[in-house]
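Title: Prediction job returns without error message
Component: structure pipeline
Severity: low
Priority: P3
Assignee: unassigned

Description:
Job completed but the reporter wants confirmation the result is attached to the right record. Sequence as submitted:
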Amino acid sequence: MSPRHPALLILLFTGLAIAALPTGLARAEDESPTPPDPHAAARERLVADSIEAGPFGRTPVKDPAVLAAMRSVKRHLFVPPGLRSEAYRDRPLPIGHGQTISQPYIVAYMTEALQVGPDATVLEIGTGSGYQAAVLAAIVKKVYSIEIIPPLAEEGAANLKAAGVANVETRTGDGYHGWKEHAPYDGIVVTAAAAHIPPPLIEQLKPGGRMVIPVGPPLQTQSLMLVEKREDGSVSQRNVMPVRFVPLTRGK
């Protein structure tokens, strides 16, 4: 049966089509593809060639969560602008104040040695530019990070915020004493070489937890120590590899 008012129906359908057009355009704009990351290929080469493959006799890093974090965290956001072309080389880089951002392989190795998962809380001693904290934050629930040099503490916090890392809390202070308010921790990572393993950090480690810390004299080869606290509270420690870190700065 034909409509009684065909002209009116045509007008109504035309109005609907016109009204729908802006919505369709908005949806197309919302679904526009994210611009490709120009550094993604460099990060992939870094992880595949220098971390996962274990060249030069290194122990390969195999933990899938650690490898995923190393592939996702944008290291160039944590190095000085003048050194960003070097960000995806497997080497430490200066970040000012006599400090460095650690070599990516060492960051990955130390992170894997903690054996922490998505429900873990980790303490980091030595925020620096924030890179190690960002890698940890991609794996665990919460990271607390302490930096003794005020300008670096501010810079590290700013870098983490700019990188969109929301589960790291930072403060300025002497990391030798840890951060007792949030203890005990599932893992503790120290990113500077101490003369000995600080007793407060052992106390703040949860039974069953692990700490990774370089120990030894400044400007010389040091020992990367893996400290494990057993369920009964006893502690074991062993040297896992030779390293060279800047010295742990102490408060006065």
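Comment from assignee: result matches the submitted record. The radius of gyration is 25 Å.
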